[in-house]
């Protein structure tokens, strides 16, 4: 199946998040704190580089002089934040979603046609894992995803831009059951945490230094975002909502693409559950 299942993209659809006002407040609170956090991170890293090899006491935040982020760093951060903002805005309108699939384990996939984006798919489910565990698997250790998701041949982090933004190159696995065929992706991925929630946003990006690879069709993520929330009554379980918004490129009938994408979401969720179960057994 199409490895777009690894795209960090997701929408909001649970009742307590459906308020337009509530969604806007959440988006503003999450995105508005990012540059401040990254500025502090940049200042500390600058101090560490400056005093490398020397014995100094760890600098206090109030003693650190501001060090501007580089222009290219700001570009990637802003691209990630903008992707997250657009994904949240895309899902503010809760009208028009049509149920595509309902699984016995509670996975529900809905779809709608969004102007400028085409048909997008939203998966909702509950996973037996904490917010931190899912954040670790899907963002911190994203390069290890091929170990548990057979749809992925490899994911390589090309750039680390602060602690919350990365640029990745991903290649899908070549499998007989993949209706769409092997693809590669170049994406900016952005993450942020807010209390008991994690936001993971992303979108396609272009780099002159990393053009499309020979032998692959380069697919493109639309603005996407995952939201992982701890269940109020059980912090060992998480609500997982995921918007799949992707242009697979190539000469493929829409009917084939629209069949493959929701199936890819279900496959990904199944593999993720298996990984979580294995981790729990080892733990």
From TrEMBL:
Q: Name one GO biological process term.
A: regulation of steroid biosynthetic process
SMART domains in the record, alphabetically? START
Entries under SUPFAM superfamilies matching the protein:
Bet v1-like
Q: Identify one Gene Ontology CC term for this UniProt entry.
A: mitochondrion
Q: PROSITE patterns from the entry?
A: START
Question: Matching Pfam families, A to Z?
Answer: START (PF01852)
Q: How does it assemble?
A: May interact with TSPO.
Protein known as: START domain-containing protein 1
């Amino acid at each position: 199946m199409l490895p777009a299942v690894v795209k960090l993209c997701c929408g909001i659809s649970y009742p307590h998040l459906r308020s337009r006002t509530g969604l806007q407040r959440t988006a503003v609170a999450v995105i508005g704190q990012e540059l401040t956090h990254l500025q502090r991170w940049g200042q500390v890293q600058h101090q560490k580089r400056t005093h490398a090899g020397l014995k100094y006491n760890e600098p206090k935040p109030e003693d650190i002089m501001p060090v501007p982020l580089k222009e290219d760093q700001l570009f990637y951060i802003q691209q990630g934040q903008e992707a997250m903002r657009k994904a949240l805005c895309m899902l503010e309108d809760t009208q028009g979603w049509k149920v595509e699939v309902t699984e016995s384990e509670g996975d529900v996939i809905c779809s709608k046609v969004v102007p400028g984006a085409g048909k997008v798919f939203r998966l909702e489910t509950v996973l037996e894992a904490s917010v931190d565990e899912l954040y670790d698997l899907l963002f911190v250790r994203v390069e290890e995803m091929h170990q548990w998701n057979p749809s992925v041949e490899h994911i390589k982090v090309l750039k680390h831009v602060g602690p919350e933004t990365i640029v990745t190159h991903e290649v899908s696995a070549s499998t007989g059951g993949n209706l769409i065929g092997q693809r590669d992706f170049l994406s900016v991925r952005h993450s942020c945490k807010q209390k008991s929630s994690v936001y993971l946003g992303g979108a396609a990006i272009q780099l002159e230094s990393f053009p499309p690879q020979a032998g692959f069709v380069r697919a493109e993520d639309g603005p996407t975002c995952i939201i992982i929330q701890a269940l109020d009554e059980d912090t060992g379980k998480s609500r997982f909502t995921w918007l799949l918004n992707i242009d697979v490129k190539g000469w493929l009938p829409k009917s084939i693409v629209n069949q493959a994408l929701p199936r890819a979401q279900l496959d990904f969720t199944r593999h993720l559950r298996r990984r979580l179960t294995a981790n729990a057994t080892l733990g």
